[in-house]
Amino acid sequence: MSAIAFPAPDAAIIARRPAILAGLARLVAPDALITHEDELRPYESDALTAFRKVPLAVVLPSTTEEVAAVLSYCSTEGVPVIPRGSGTSLVGGATPQEDAVVIGVSKMNRIIEIDYANRTARVQAGVTNLAITGAVMADGFFYAPDPSSQLACSIGGNIAMNSGGAHCLKYGVTTNNIVGLKMVLLNGEIIEIGGDHLDAPGYDLLGLMIGSEGQLGIVTEATVRILRAAEGARPVLFGFPKPELAGAAVAAIIGAGIIPVAMEYMDKMAIAICEDFAHAGYPMDAEALLIIEVEGSEQ
Ligand SMILES: Cc1cc2nc3c(=O)[nH]c(=O)nc-3n(C[C@H](O)[C@H](O)[C@H](O)COP(=O)(O)OP(=O)(O)OC[C@H]3O[C@@H](n4cnc5c(N)ncnc54)[C@H](O)[C@@H]3O)c2cc1C
Fold this sequence. Notes:
With 299 residues, the chain is of the alpha+beta class. It has three domains: 11-104, Uridine Diphospho-n-acetylenolpyruvylglucosamine Reductase, domain 2 (2-Layer Sandwich), CATH 3.30.43.10; 111-228, 2-Layer Sandwich (Uridine Diphospho-n-acetylenolpyruvylglucosamine Reductase, domain 3); 234-294, no CATH class. 27% of the residues lie in helices and 23% in strands. It has helices at 11-15, 17-25, 37-40, 64-77, 129-136, 155-161, 168-171, 205-209, 243-255, 268-278; strands at residues 33-34, 57-59, 81-84, 101-104, 111-115, 120-124, 141-142, 178-185, 190-194, 217-225, 227-228, 234-240, 262-267, 288-294. The strands form four sheets. A five-stranded antiparallel beta sheet has the order 5-6-10-8-9. It is globular and about 65 Å long. The protein starts with 10 loop residues before the first helix and ends in a 5-residue tail after the last strand. The relative contact order is 0.11. Bound molecules: flavin-adenine dinucleotide (FAD). Residues 46-47, 82-90, 93-94, 105, 125, 147-149, 153-154, 156-158, 160-161, 163-165, 213-214, 218-219 line the site of flavin-adenine dinucleotide (FAD).
């Protein structure tokens, strides 16, 4: 792990820290600028905690305009920036450098509008994945891409990583479930791409931005698709004496034209680890498990 080399931080930027902090303080409210080392520590890594760097500062803007002001300032001053959602990335995407300013969207956590007629919701980038489903669940809808971290991860982070989960076999990953974005480019320019319905006219810039890992700008708002929740779907668990048989079962199900709402595979090691933790009663003599959820199945 330690073999991975980070780029050397720019000593000239670090030497200018007091002036940079003063510049940032002019752009956001006092409680939106974190500068004390103790308070910077939570931002020194994402979920890949093997790599840690305390950033120059953390800014937590509340509006798109504040994000734009901070990005414009950092671009003019030549200060690197690291966008951050909830910090659950497992690949170090939100890991900062000592000469970088982390821009977190966690204060931007409002659901702006739910439009059932068009089956969309407009949300701020810091809203958690599960909160979107939480907002529409009582009306029989849900937001489909469901990373296992959905309780904590933000929709902005999901967009940057094109995240997916168990429901993505049937409903697609993040890129299939976003119709519009408001974002700020690294020079501070605010842009809107896509629209409020599928396949907006013009170039497919959503395809470029979704999955770009925060390298092209900071997402501040998203218009997401919300779907009718499946009726009567419940998971069924199958144990297999050989992993190959589980694989063949997956191929046979898909080959028969059945697309389950969700389908997950666990190998023997995963079964043992999960059983040890959750005591779910998994069949411990199975070499592989399939957990399959089929829409409309009667249990
Ligand atoms: C227990 C656990 C389970 C997980 N399960 C899954 C899973 O099932 N499927 C899956 O795909 N992933 C999974 N992940 C990984 C992670 O949760 C996802 O990648 C998630 O989308 C990250 O969201 P975040 O808000 O935490 O983003 P962060 O970790 O904060 O950032 C991730 C990347 O996105 C960028 N970014 C964040 N916010 C923005 C923004 N507003 N604009 C532009 N760029 C931004 C950051 O710079 C960084 O590069 C899991 C992680 C954990 C810890």
